[in-house]
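Sequence only, no structure available. Ideas?
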Amino acid sequence: MDALKQGMDALFILLGAILVLAMHAGFAFLELGTVRKKNQVNALVKILVDFSLSTVVYFLVGYGVAYGTHFFVGADVLAQRNGYDLVKFFFLLTFAAAIPAIISGGIAERAKFWPQLMATAVIVGFVYPFFEGVVWNGNWGVQAWIESLTGAPFHDFAGSVVVHAVGGWIALPAVVLLGARYNRYRKDGSLSAHPPSSIPFLALGAWILCVGWFGFNVMSAQTVDNLSGLVAVNSLMAMVGGTLAALVLGKNDPGFVHNGPLAGLVAVCAGSDVMHPIGAWFVGAIAGGLFVWLFTLVQNKWKIDDVLGVWPLHGLCGTWGGIAAGIFGSNSLGGLGGVSLSAQLIGTAMGVAWALLGGVVVYGVLRYTVGLRLSNEDEFQGADLSIHQITATPEREVSW
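Reply:
I predicted one. C-alpha coordinates follow.
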Protein backbone atom coordinates (compact mmCIF):
# COMPACT_ATOMS: atom_id res chain seq x y z
CA MET A 1 0.00 0.00 0.00
CA ASP A 2 2.87 2.36 0.77
CA ALA A 3 4.42 1.70 -2.64
CA LEU A 4 1.04 2.32 -4.29
CA LYS A 5 0.68 5.62 -2.39
CA GLN A 6 4.14 6.74 -3.54
CA GLY A 7 3.30 5.91 -7.13
CA MET A 8 -0.03 7.73 -6.96
CA ASP A 9 1.62 10.83 -5.47
CA ALA A 10 4.25 10.87 -8.20
CA LEU A 11 1.60 10.48 -10.90
CA PHE A 12 -0.62 13.13 -9.27
CA ILE A 13 2.03 15.82 -9.20
CA LEU A 14 3.32 14.82 -12.65
CA LEU A 15 -0.15 15.44 -14.11
CA GLY A 16 -0.16 18.81 -12.36
CA ALA A 17 3.22 19.66 -13.85
CA ILE A 18 1.99 18.77 -17.34
CA LEU A 19 -1.11 20.92 -16.94
CA VAL A 20 0.90 23.93 -15.77
CA LEU A 21 3.43 23.31 -18.56
CA ALA A 22 0.50 23.62 -20.98
CA MET A 23 -0.27 27.01 -19.45
CA HIS A 24 2.93 28.31 -21.01
CA ALA A 25 1.34 27.69 -24.40
CA GLY A 26 -1.50 29.85 -23.07
CA PHE A 27 0.94 32.62 -22.17
CA ALA A 28 2.41 32.40 -25.67
CA PHE A 29 -0.89 32.57 -27.55
CA LEU A 30 -2.32 35.25 -25.27
CA GLU A 31 0.68 37.44 -26.11
CA LEU A 32 0.64 36.44 -29.78
CA GLY A 33 -2.98 37.49 -30.12
CA THR A 34 -2.51 40.77 -28.26
CA VAL A 35 0.61 42.13 -29.96
CA ARG A 36 0.68 43.46 -33.49
CA LYS A 37 1.25 41.08 -36.37
CA LYS A 38 4.90 42.02 -36.80
CA ASN A 39 5.72 40.76 -33.28
CA GLN A 40 3.91 37.41 -33.21
CA VAL A 41 6.93 35.18 -33.86
CA ASN A 42 8.86 36.94 -31.11
CA ALA A 43 6.05 36.22 -28.64
CA LEU A 44 6.16 32.49 -29.40
CA VAL A 45 9.95 32.22 -29.28
CA LYS A 46 10.32 34.18 -26.04
CA ILE A 47 7.99 31.98 -24.03
CA LEU A 48 9.63 28.71 -25.14
CA VAL A 49 13.19 29.93 -24.69
CA ASP A 50 12.40 31.57 -21.35
CA PHE A 51 10.92 28.29 -20.14
CA SER A 52 13.96 26.33 -21.31
CA LEU A 53 16.43 28.67 -19.64
CA SER A 54 14.29 28.75 -16.49
CA THR A 55 14.45 24.95 -16.32
CA VAL A 56 18.26 24.89 -16.34
CA VAL A 57 18.67 27.78 -13.89
CA TYR A 58 16.01 26.52 -11.47
CA PHE A 59 17.51 23.01 -11.57
CA LEU A 60 21.05 24.22 -10.89
CA VAL A 61 20.39 27.16 -8.55
CA GLY A 62 16.82 28.30 -7.88
CA TYR A 63 15.39 25.11 -6.37
CA GLY A 64 18.30 24.99 -3.93
CA VAL A 65 17.76 28.62 -2.94
CA ALA A 66 14.09 27.92 -2.19
CA TYR A 67 14.28 24.48 -0.60
CA GLY A 68 17.92 23.95 0.40
CA THR A 69 18.35 20.81 -1.68
CA HIS A 70 20.08 19.83 -4.91
CA PHE A 71 20.19 17.05 -7.48
CA PHE A 72 23.94 16.41 -7.62
CA VAL A 73 23.58 12.81 -6.47
CA GLY A 74 23.32 9.47 -8.23
CA ALA A 75 20.30 8.52 -10.30
CA ASP A 76 19.61 5.68 -7.84
CA VAL A 77 18.97 8.30 -5.14
CA LEU A 78 16.86 10.47 -7.44
CA ALA A 79 14.71 7.47 -8.42
CA GLN A 80 13.61 6.78 -4.85
CA ARG A 81 9.89 7.11 -4.05
CA ASN A 82 9.13 6.70 -7.76
CA GLY A 83 11.16 9.84 -8.46
CA TYR A 84 8.69 11.97 -6.51
CA ASP A 85 11.28 14.59 -5.58
CA LEU A 86 12.21 15.05 -9.24
CA VAL A 87 8.59 15.35 -10.31
CA LYS A 88 7.97 17.84 -7.51
CA PHE A 89 10.85 19.89 -8.93
CA PHE A 90 9.17 19.73 -12.37
CA PHE A 91 5.89 20.95 -10.89
CA LEU A 92 7.45 23.85 -8.98
CA LEU A 93 9.62 24.74 -11.98
CA THR A 94 6.50 25.44 -14.02
CA PHE A 95 5.53 28.00 -11.37
CA ALA A 96 8.98 29.61 -11.42
CA ALA A 97 8.98 29.80 -15.22
CA ALA A 98 5.66 31.65 -15.11
CA ILE A 99 7.50 34.73 -13.80
CA PRO A 100 9.38 35.54 -17.04
CA ALA A 101 6.27 34.52 -19.02
CA ILE A 102 4.29 37.15 -17.10
CA ILE A 103 6.96 39.81 -17.60
CA SER A 104 7.17 39.01 -21.32
CA GLY A 105 3.64 40.28 -21.92
CA GLY A 106 4.36 43.64 -20.33
CA ILE A 107 7.55 44.41 -22.25
CA ALA A 108 6.35 43.03 -25.59
CA GLU A 109 7.04 44.61 -28.98
CA ARG A 110 10.09 46.72 -28.08
CA ALA A 111 12.39 44.70 -25.79
CA LYS A 112 15.73 43.22 -26.83
CA PHE A 113 15.89 39.43 -26.80
CA TRP A 114 19.17 38.58 -25.06
CA PRO A 115 18.92 41.08 -22.16
CA GLN A 116 15.54 39.61 -21.28
CA LEU A 117 17.13 36.15 -21.11
CA MET A 118 19.75 37.56 -18.74
CA ALA A 119 16.95 38.95 -16.57
CA THR A 120 15.21 35.55 -16.65
CA ALA A 121 18.33 33.82 -15.33
CA VAL A 122 18.67 36.17 -12.35
CA ILE A 123 14.94 36.27 -11.53
CA VAL A 124 14.40 32.49 -11.70
CA GLY A 125 17.76 31.74 -10.10
CA PHE A 126 17.43 34.03 -7.09
CA VAL A 127 14.75 36.74 -6.94
CA TYR A 128 11.70 34.47 -7.19
CA PRO A 129 12.99 31.40 -5.28
CA PHE A 130 14.15 33.55 -2.36
CA PHE A 131 10.57 34.66 -1.64
CA GLU A 132 9.20 31.25 -2.62
CA GLY A 133 11.38 29.66 0.07
CA VAL A 134 10.31 32.22 2.65
CA VAL A 135 6.60 31.47 2.14
CA TRP A 136 6.47 27.80 1.12
CA ASN A 137 9.51 26.41 2.97
CA GLY A 138 9.61 28.60 6.08
CA ASN A 139 13.08 29.96 5.30
CA TRP A 140 14.65 32.63 7.51
CA GLY A 141 11.96 32.24 10.16
CA VAL A 142 9.70 34.81 8.52
CA GLN A 143 6.57 32.67 8.64
CA ALA A 144 7.21 31.85 12.29
CA TRP A 145 7.57 35.57 13.02
CA ILE A 146 4.30 36.40 11.23
CA GLU A 147 2.51 33.63 13.12
CA SER A 148 3.84 34.83 16.47
CA LEU A 149 2.66 38.33 15.64
CA THR A 150 -0.79 37.59 14.20
CA GLY A 151 -1.68 34.08 15.33
CA ALA A 152 -1.46 32.57 11.82
CA PRO A 153 1.22 32.27 9.13
CA PHE A 154 0.91 33.98 5.77
CA HIS A 155 -1.37 31.75 3.69
CA ASP A 156 -0.79 31.44 -0.07
CA PHE A 157 -1.96 28.01 -1.14
CA ALA A 158 -1.28 28.27 -4.90
CA GLY A 159 0.61 31.49 -5.44
CA SER A 160 -1.57 34.60 -5.76
CA VAL A 161 1.32 36.49 -4.20
CA VAL A 162 4.30 34.13 -4.48
CA VAL A 163 3.87 33.71 -8.26
CA HIS A 164 1.44 36.25 -9.69
CA ALA A 165 1.94 39.35 -7.56
CA VAL A 166 5.70 38.83 -7.59
CA GLY A 167 5.72 38.42 -11.39
CA GLY A 168 3.47 41.43 -11.93
CA TRP A 169 5.35 43.74 -9.59
CA ILE A 170 8.72 42.75 -11.10
CA ALA A 171 7.21 43.58 -14.50
CA LEU A 172 6.19 47.11 -13.47
CA PRO A 173 9.72 48.60 -13.21
CA ALA A 174 10.69 46.67 -16.35
CA VAL A 175 7.85 48.31 -18.29
CA VAL A 176 8.60 51.77 -16.89
CA LEU A 177 12.35 51.54 -17.52
CA LEU A 178 11.75 50.25 -21.04
CA GLY A 179 9.38 53.08 -21.97
CA ALA A 180 6.29 53.12 -24.13
CA ARG A 181 6.17 51.72 -27.64
CA TYR A 182 7.02 54.22 -30.36
CA ASN A 183 4.13 56.61 -31.08
CA ARG A 184 1.90 54.97 -28.47
CA TYR A 185 1.44 58.30 -26.70
CA ARG A 186 1.67 61.30 -29.00
CA LYS A 187 3.11 64.68 -28.05
CA ASP A 188 -0.31 66.32 -28.27
CA GLY A 189 -1.55 63.99 -25.51
CA SER A 190 -3.61 61.75 -27.78
CA LEU A 191 -3.45 57.98 -27.66
CA SER A 192 -2.47 55.90 -30.69
CA ALA A 193 -4.42 52.66 -30.88
CA HIS A 194 -2.37 49.46 -31.11
CA PRO A 195 -5.20 46.90 -31.49
CA PRO A 196 -4.67 43.15 -30.94
CA SER A 197 -3.59 41.28 -34.04
CA SER A 198 -5.82 38.24 -33.45
CA ILE A 199 -8.75 37.93 -31.07
CA PRO A 200 -9.04 34.17 -31.85
CA PHE A 201 -5.42 33.57 -30.76
CA LEU A 202 -5.93 35.80 -27.71
CA ALA A 203 -9.01 33.75 -26.79
CA LEU A 204 -7.16 30.47 -27.39
CA GLY A 205 -4.41 31.58 -25.03
CA ALA A 206 -6.95 32.52 -22.36
CA TRP A 207 -8.74 29.17 -22.66
CA ILE A 208 -5.49 27.18 -22.42
CA LEU A 209 -4.56 29.13 -19.30
CA CYS A 210 -8.00 28.53 -17.75
CA VAL A 211 -7.81 24.78 -18.29
CA GLY A 212 -4.22 24.51 -17.07
CA TRP A 213 -5.06 26.57 -14.00
CA PHE A 214 -6.91 23.65 -12.46
CA GLY A 215 -3.57 21.85 -12.37
CA PHE A 216 -1.96 25.01 -11.01
CA ASN A 217 -4.43 25.24 -8.12
CA VAL A 218 -5.70 21.72 -7.42
CA MET A 219 -2.32 19.99 -7.75
CA SER A 220 -0.74 22.48 -5.35
CA ALA A 221 -1.88 19.92 -2.76
CA GLN A 222 1.17 17.96 -4.05
CA THR A 223 -0.07 14.59 -2.70
CA VAL A 224 -3.23 12.57 -3.32
CA ASP A 225 -4.29 12.52 0.32
CA ASN A 226 -4.31 16.35 0.38
CA LEU A 227 -6.46 16.61 -2.77
CA SER A 228 -9.43 18.95 -2.27
CA GLY A 229 -12.46 19.27 -4.50
CA LEU A 230 -13.11 22.58 -2.74
CA VAL A 231 -10.06 24.03 -4.52
CA ALA A 232 -11.42 22.95 -7.90
CA VAL A 233 -14.89 24.41 -7.38
CA ASN A 234 -13.52 27.63 -5.88
CA SER A 235 -11.25 28.04 -8.90
CA LEU A 236 -14.23 27.51 -11.20
CA MET A 237 -16.37 30.05 -9.34
CA ALA A 238 -13.64 32.69 -9.33
CA MET A 239 -13.05 32.12 -13.03
CA VAL A 240 -16.68 32.73 -13.97
CA GLY A 241 -16.99 35.61 -11.52
CA GLY A 242 -14.08 37.37 -13.18
CA THR A 243 -15.52 36.71 -16.62
CA LEU A 244 -18.95 38.16 -15.85
CA ALA A 245 -17.55 41.23 -14.09
CA ALA A 246 -15.22 41.95 -17.01
CA LEU A 247 -18.09 41.46 -19.46
CA VAL A 248 -20.27 44.06 -17.74
CA LEU A 249 -17.63 46.62 -16.77
CA GLY A 250 -15.64 46.13 -19.96
CA LYS A 251 -18.74 46.79 -22.08
CA ASN A 252 -18.49 43.48 -23.93
CA ASP A 253 -14.92 44.12 -25.11
CA PRO A 254 -13.48 40.68 -26.08
CA GLY A 255 -10.05 41.54 -24.69
CA PHE A 256 -11.52 42.22 -21.28
CA VAL A 257 -13.89 39.24 -21.47
CA HIS A 258 -11.00 36.83 -22.04
CA ASN A 259 -8.73 38.39 -19.41
CA GLY A 260 -11.53 38.50 -16.82
CA PRO A 261 -11.35 34.78 -16.00
CA LEU A 262 -7.59 35.04 -15.66
CA ALA A 263 -7.97 37.89 -13.17
CA GLY A 264 -10.38 35.79 -11.13
CA LEU A 265 -8.07 32.77 -11.17
CA VAL A 266 -5.05 34.87 -10.17
CA ALA A 267 -6.95 36.24 -7.18
CA VAL A 268 -8.36 32.94 -5.91
CA CYS A 269 -5.05 31.04 -5.84
CA ALA A 270 -4.06 32.10 -2.34
CA GLY A 271 -7.29 31.15 -0.57
CA SER A 272 -8.77 28.55 -2.88
CA ASP A 273 -8.38 25.87 -0.22
CA VAL A 274 -10.16 27.79 2.57
CA MET A 275 -12.93 29.87 0.93
CA HIS A 276 -16.58 29.04 0.41
CA PRO A 277 -17.50 28.85 -3.32
CA ILE A 278 -19.73 31.93 -3.00
CA GLY A 279 -16.82 33.81 -1.46
CA ALA A 280 -14.57 32.64 -4.28
CA TRP A 281 -17.09 34.00 -6.80
CA PHE A 282 -16.97 37.42 -5.14
CA VAL A 283 -13.16 37.34 -5.06
CA GLY A 284 -13.09 36.57 -8.79
CA ALA A 285 -15.72 39.18 -9.65
CA ILE A 286 -13.88 41.90 -7.75
CA ALA A 287 -10.65 40.90 -9.50
CA GLY A 288 -12.33 41.03 -12.94
CA GLY A 289 -13.64 44.51 -12.18
CA LEU A 290 -10.26 45.64 -10.83
CA PHE A 291 -8.55 44.50 -14.00
CA VAL A 292 -10.88 46.41 -16.32
CA TRP A 293 -10.67 49.60 -14.24
CA LEU A 294 -6.92 49.48 -13.62
CA PHE A 295 -5.95 48.42 -17.14
CA THR A 296 -7.83 51.44 -18.52
CA LEU A 297 -6.32 53.73 -15.89
CA VAL A 298 -2.76 52.48 -16.44
CA GLN A 299 -2.91 52.67 -20.23
CA ASN A 300 -4.96 55.82 -20.78
CA LYS A 301 -4.39 58.03 -17.73
CA TRP A 302 -1.01 57.07 -16.34
CA LYS A 303 0.40 56.27 -19.79
CA ILE A 304 2.28 53.17 -18.67
CA ASP A 305 2.54 51.00 -21.78
CA ASP A 306 2.02 47.58 -20.22
CA VAL A 307 1.03 45.74 -23.41
CA LEU A 308 -0.89 42.80 -21.91
CA GLY A 309 -1.74 44.56 -18.66
CA VAL A 310 0.40 42.16 -16.61
CA TRP A 311 0.76 44.58 -13.70
CA PRO A 312 -3.02 45.03 -13.27
CA LEU A 313 -3.74 41.36 -14.03
CA HIS A 314 -1.02 39.58 -12.08
CA GLY A 315 0.48 42.25 -9.85
CA LEU A 316 -2.64 43.99 -8.54
CA CYS A 317 -5.12 41.09 -8.78
CA GLY A 318 -2.50 38.86 -7.14
CA THR A 319 -2.15 41.42 -4.36
CA TRP A 320 -5.93 41.45 -3.96
CA GLY A 321 -5.90 37.66 -3.81
CA GLY A 322 -3.37 37.60 -0.99
CA ILE A 323 -5.53 40.00 1.04
CA ALA A 324 -8.80 38.31 0.05
CA ALA A 325 -7.64 34.99 1.51
CA GLY A 326 -7.67 36.65 4.93
CA ILE A 327 -11.18 38.02 4.38
CA PHE A 328 -13.15 35.32 2.57
CA GLY A 329 -11.20 32.47 4.18
CA SER A 330 -12.42 33.46 7.64
CA ASN A 331 -15.16 31.52 9.45
CA SER A 332 -17.37 34.60 9.56
CA LEU A 333 -17.70 34.58 5.76
CA GLY A 334 -18.17 30.86 5.40
CA GLY A 335 -14.51 29.91 5.03
CA LEU A 336 -12.57 27.20 6.84
CA GLY A 337 -10.67 29.70 9.00
CA GLY A 338 -7.08 29.36 10.13
CA VAL A 339 -6.15 32.57 8.34
CA SER A 340 -5.51 36.08 9.60
CA LEU A 341 -6.11 39.29 7.69
CA SER A 342 -3.14 40.87 9.47
CA ALA A 343 -0.88 38.02 8.38
CA GLN A 344 -2.15 38.32 4.82
CA LEU A 345 -1.46 42.06 4.75
CA ILE A 346 2.08 41.58 6.08
CA GLY A 347 2.96 38.70 3.75
CA THR A 348 1.45 40.40 0.70
CA ALA A 349 3.29 43.66 1.43
CA MET A 350 6.56 41.75 1.77
CA GLY A 351 6.03 40.06 -1.59
CA VAL A 352 5.26 43.34 -3.33
CA ALA A 353 8.27 45.11 -1.80
CA TRP A 354 10.66 42.26 -2.67
CA ALA A 355 9.38 42.06 -6.26
CA LEU A 356 9.65 45.82 -6.78
CA LEU A 357 13.20 45.83 -5.43
CA GLY A 358 14.16 42.87 -7.62
CA GLY A 359 12.62 44.41 -10.73
CA VAL A 360 14.30 47.79 -10.22
CA VAL A 361 17.73 46.24 -9.59
CA VAL A 362 17.67 43.62 -12.36
CA TYR A 363 16.21 45.77 -15.12
CA GLY A 364 17.97 48.94 -13.93
CA VAL A 365 21.37 47.26 -14.20
CA LEU A 366 20.53 45.81 -17.62
CA ARG A 367 19.27 49.15 -18.91
CA TYR A 368 22.49 50.95 -18.03
CA THR A 369 24.84 48.17 -19.18
CA VAL A 370 23.62 46.20 -22.21
CA GLY A 371 20.40 48.15 -22.84
CA LEU A 372 16.81 46.90 -22.83
CA ARG A 373 15.22 48.38 -25.88
CA LEU A 374 15.30 47.76 -29.62
CA SER A 375 16.36 50.66 -31.82
CA ASN A 376 13.60 52.78 -33.34
CA GLU A 377 14.28 51.19 -36.73
CA ASP A 378 14.10 47.64 -35.36
CA GLU A 379 10.94 48.41 -33.42
CA PHE A 380 9.32 49.94 -36.49
CA GLN A 381 10.26 46.91 -38.58
CA GLY A 382 8.98 44.58 -35.85
CA ALA A 383 10.70 42.14 -33.51
CA ASP A 384 9.96 39.22 -35.84
CA LEU A 385 12.18 40.48 -38.65
CA SER A 386 14.62 42.38 -36.43
CA ILE A 387 15.38 39.48 -34.11
CA HIS A 388 14.25 36.28 -35.85
CA GLN A 389 14.47 37.27 -39.54
CA ILE A 390 11.05 35.86 -40.37
CA THR A 391 7.44 36.95 -39.99
CA ALA A 392 4.48 34.89 -38.81
CA THR A 393 2.85 34.97 -42.24
CA PRO A 394 5.39 35.80 -44.99
CA GLU A 395 3.65 37.81 -47.67
CA ARG A 396 5.63 36.30 -50.49
CA GLU A 397 6.43 32.65 -51.05
CA VAL A 398 9.67 31.58 -52.70
CA SER A 399 9.03 30.42 -56.26
CA TRP A 400 11.31 28.28 -58.41
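The CA atoms of residues 17 and 52 lie 15 Å apart.
Hope that gets you unstuck.
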